[in-house]
Amino acid sequence: MDSSEQDRRQREKLIFFSIVFKRTLLNAGFFILLAPKTSLKKHH
Q1: Helix count (H) and strand count (E) of the chain?
Q2: Which branch of life, at top level (predicted)?
Q3: What is the pTM of this model?
């Protein structure tokens, strides 16, 4: 009984971390794509 509760919590943690990780990757990807454009605008 105790182990099943722990497994459920661990699964919820994994889901939460995967969502955060995906969002972080998306944000990083957008930043990498947009950063060169903004830096070019600043130079010109």
Answers
A1: 1, 0
A2: Bacteria
A3: 0.58
